[in-house]
Design goal:
Tripartite tricarboxylate transporter substrate-binding protein, single chain, Bug_dom1, flat
Length: about 70
């Protein structure tokens, strides 16, 4: 499972970078990692580029599935 945080469109890049850095620094803290591990949650910080790639892949995959199933979004 992937848990993510999105910022509003047009959020300035320096703000996004600062948030991204703060989240990744938090995710590597031993105490947090241990608490999350008790819940079978593995923290795996990724770069903004890796995340953008993953989101694009997911949108493409789900769009293809919706098309095959002929699901219409209203």
């Amino acid at each position: 499972m992937l848990s993510v945080i999105f910022a509003p469109a047009n959020t300035p890049a320096p703000v996004v970078a600062k948030i991204h850095q703060a989240i990744n620094e938090t995710l590597i803290q031993p105490e947090l990692k241990a608490k999350l591990a008790l819940q079978s949650i593995d923290t795996a910080p990724i770069s903004q580029e890796e995340f953008a790639y993953t989101v694009k892949q997911d949108f493409t995959r789900w769009a293809e599935l919706l098309k095959v199933l002929k699901v219409k979004v209203e």
